[in-house]
Write a structure and sequence with these properties.
By secondary structure, the protein is α+β, with helices and mostly antiparallel strands. Among the domains are: 131 residues, Sandwich (Jelly Rolls), CATH 2.60.120; 30 residues. 52% of the residues lie in helices and 15% in strands. It has a 5-stranded mixed beta sheet with strand order 1-8-3-6-9. The chain has a 4-stranded antiparallel beta sheet with strand order 2-7-4-5. The protein is elongated.
Length: 291
């Protein structure tokens, strides 16, 4: 259990018994992702719930970033469908092993990431042994998941089967700021954030203390991603206008360096003069006491 202490100490497991935690630890394993590596692809079967121990990742749908994940976040899917099929399997021949839930987006590492993963079928098997904890976990996991990859896939698959939907009108850069206020409530990013533990405090009061730290971490991760993208953009060959502006900037920097050098020289001269004055004063003091 001590190998997976970091994930088993999450609030969602705080009411589980020691026996339950020991069985759960048998279904947890460590994972590692390098920058640019995909943890999950769209359409993949969601067989694990992932806990990010270190690093940052992004969730993408239709080549658009809809969520940024960081340390302490959970990503995967809830277990409602698994429990439903599991209960049906108890009366028939269908079990939770036949339950396949597919991902609605891609999950890609932005930095080096250390993760812990819980196997879904093993998790469901353990929960069946502890029915008093099963329902509590099923309710809490819906609030604790930072991003639920199950939601959205069924609707998109149904749309593809029934035919193409009406194309959305394009938005120019001039109208972007005006339309943001109208569309922000329906944007995938806001939908993802509303489903995160930090935005479901009303439905889960025990997560209120995590709101401030989670929001700060999300903001910091977004800023980090933007800096990385700006560095990649800056690595492209500069245009003529950029080159001219760089030359002007270099001249200003050279002037500032020259001013700084002259200031240092003046300060050095003042220190030398002060040192000589102190030395002369010291000689006068010694003569006075000697006389």
């Amino acid at each position: 259990m001590h190998l997976h202490r970091e994930i088993l100490q999450l609030p969602i497991f705080e009411s589980a018994s020691q026996g339950c935690l020991k069985l759960l630890s048998l279904h947890i394993k460590a994972n590692f992702c390098a920058p640019g590596e995909y943890l999950i692809h769209k359409g993949d079967a969601l067989s694990y719930i992932y806990y990010i121990c270190n690093g940052s990742m992004e969730v993408m749908q239709n080549n658009m970033v809809v969520a940024i994940l960081g340390k302490g976040d959970l990503v995967g899917c809830d277990i409602s469908i698994h429990l439903l099929h599991g209960n049906q399997g108890n009366s028939g021949n269908t079990g939770s092993q036949d339950t396949i839930v597919k991902s609605s987006g891609d999950v890609k590492a932005l930095t080096y990431c250390d993760l812990k993963s819980i196997h879904m079928s093993g998790l469901v098997e353990v929960l069946r042994l502890y029915p008093e904890y099963q329902q509590e976990f099923a309710n809490d996991i819906q609030h604790d998941l930072t991003y639920n990859l199950r939601e959205g896939y069924e609707a998109e698959e149904e749309t593809e089967n029934n035919g193409p939907c009406l194309a959305l009108p394009s938005i120019s850069e001039d109208d972007e700021n005006q339309s943001d206020a109208e569309t922000s409530s329906a944007s995938p990013m806001n939908t993802a954030l509303q489903k995160s533990p930090a935005h479901n405090v009303g439905s889960s009061p025990r997560h209120a203390k995590l709101v401030h730290s989670r929001n700060r971490s999300l903001v910091a991760l977004r800023e980090r991603v933007e800096r990385q993208r700006s560095v990649q953009t800056a690595s492209q060959p500069p245009t003529v206008e950029q080159a001219n502006s760089f030359e002007g900037l270099n001249l200003e920097v050279a002037k500032e360096k020259e001013k700084g050098r002259m200031s240092v020289e003046r300060l050095d001269n003042q220190v030398t003069t002060l040192h000589n004055d102190v030395a002369a004063l010291s000689v006068e003091v010694r003569k006075h006491w000697a006389g």
